[in-house]
């Protein structure tokens, strides 16, 4: 196994596992909060308001918490956010019929989401040799794919065995357990940034990083369109497993793609590689506009996922190289924020398109989002060379 030697390195398996468990609550929230509120008799209008409050708070809170970690270290901030997020979920579970407390709980749970993804990605350069760093990011990206497969399954299992409200308690417990595993590990406890940024813009003062984040928003927009489109497709056509089955094929393609990607030793510079992967992603979303019959839709969903996780793994490398010293955790947090914001916008736009026009126009939204990413990567490819790890030869090859 090409990843086995990475998993055998000190603390890697513990940190990856703890981070994976601690990320599950975020993947569960989109289902858990609406289910608990509907079970308590809440209207769909209020359910949407609560879910939106959680998502918006998470998007706003991530960079702020990331900046705190860059300045104070990981351990204390991770523990505090885990307790606050758990308190937010428990508040919703205990008072689902009290609107003000539900919104407060959703806001706290979202804003205090423990930034385990940025923290782990900040630790990778100290956990593995430089030659294995890209494979480590690929392994991280594959774990993220499994989070969004396992999260809904945990929700479904808990609802079937106990109740919708119990899912919120499970979320609180998983978040605390995951954070405890990570925060008490040696690399996390010892991590300190050598330089502390005092610029209020933080990592956003680096233009290349801002460009990269905009590219990720375009990819997030495409994913948001897909989340809505598959529901509509499954309603109009018979597909085994319905919309969850379509998304599972997408996740399987993404997982397979990143495992192969991370096992290869690449010599192509990162900006050029990101552009090639984005073009591959655009191919899948371009074909999706035709909305083929179910027999062809399954393989197409695999294709749409095939380039996604490898593209994300490449951007992880680029973020690490582009982020100014002392801002790495915040930079990775901004990545999550821009991606999530793009996803929310993509879902909203696609929903409106499907309501007013044909489903082909709704499918075209995904291709539009990836097209923006491709154009930005092409136009700004010279700005995407990081100062920390790009060799002169690679730079010359890409700017020739």
From TrEMBL:
Residues 11-383 form the Major facilitator superfamily (MFS) profile domain. It holds the Pfam family MFS_1. InterPro entries: MFS, MFS_dom, MFS_trans_sf. It comes from the Bacteria. The keyword Iron does not apply. PROSITE patterns: MFS (PS50850). The keyword Transmembrane applies. The chain crosses the membrane at residues 12-37, 43-64, 76-94, 166-188, 209-233, 239-262, 274-291, 297-319, 331-354, 360-378. It is found in: Cell membrane. It is a multi-pass membrane protein. Keywords: Membrane, Transmembrane, Transmembrane helix. This is MFS transporter. It comes from Streptomyces salyersiae.
